[in-house]
Amino acid sequence: MNPAVFVREWLDKLAPRERVLVLAAAIFACCALVYALGLQPLYAARGRAAAQVEERRSLLSDIEQVARRFGPQAAAAGPVAATGESLVVVIDRSTRERGLGAYLKRNQPEGAGGVRLRLENAPFDELTAWLADVQARHGLSAVSASFDPSGEPGRVNSNLVLERIGR
Known about the structure:
4 strands, four-stranded antiparallel sheet
């Protein structure tokens, strides 16, 4: 038997007052299901998203405060002024100070304010620390860099072009 026919026959057997109560209960149950399975999860997700937005706004505010505190000082100080030494000499001295002198195979001027380097089989960690150091101490920045594994773990062959920041 068709369920729709069965429900229709059952409703026809009810008194008019009972029929109204059953239909009202059915409408209420449908509305409750729509809310419970559709609307309530949407409202909950919206609330979580709003909380995440507020949390990220707070984090952004904190980051902006730190940037205001430290950013202008770093920008005002700028890189350390040049001592008049050639970049080739600065690179040679700084690599030796950091223990990378043995890995430096080429160190030649590149244009007006740059230098081209080739380091072979250099320890990657020390190389990146040296790059950060020459940027902070001498105002040099890598404008071109390539790193290739040298065959030993943690060691690379590198071609770098460094220039003074602000040129």
